[in-house]
Design brief:
Largest sheet: 2 strands, antiparallel
CATH architecture of one domain: Orthogonal Bundle
Structural class: mainly alpha
Strand content: under 5%
DNA sequence: CTTCTTACA
DNA sequence: TGTAAGCA
């Protein structure tokens, strides 16, 4: 989950990206103008690309080689982004369910302590059920 | 020297 | 898309 931040860090100037992708600066700037990528800028207005930007450029390149036009690629990325969003939501829902399960089990343990188990005191209880 | 924008072929 | 000009 912390990887996402790393992948979105503005790191490389356009010169590095041209070597990484085999695309010309002209092409890269044009794709940005077409809304296919949104690299950050330095205080001096220079573009700084992230790993995600580079990956996306490589993706754009392969789509272009397969004969898909800019408009088509824009839609592909849009849909792909929606899929990722749905995935994140599903993941979040899953974790919330897990927490509810944990709470339920804790409550169960407090209400019906098993033999040999030390009951939780008030401090611990309030900590677990504060929310 | 690298990058940026703008304009033209 | 390539290239040139004039800046930063």
């Amino acid at each position: 989950m912390k990887d996402e931040l790393r992948r979105n860090m503005p790191l490389f100037p356009i010169g590095i990206v041209t070597k990484l992708t085999e695309l010309t600066p002209r092409q890269i700037r044009y794709y940005e103008q077409q809304g296919l990528i949104s690299p950050e800028r330095t205080k001096g207005n220079q573009r700084l690309f992230s790993f995600n930007d580079v990956d996306r450029l490589l993706q754009i390149k392969s789509y272009l080689e397969k004969g898909i036009n800019i408009a088509g690629i824009r839609e592909m990325l849009k849909q792909q982004q929606q899929v990722l969003e749905a995935k994140r939501e599903a993941e979040t829902a899953k974790k919330e369910l897990s927490e509810r399960e944990l709470r339920r089990m804790l409550k169960q343990q407090i209400i019906h302590p098993r033999r040999g188990q030390i009951p939780l005191n008030h401090g611990e209880l309030s900590r677990f059920f504060r929310h």
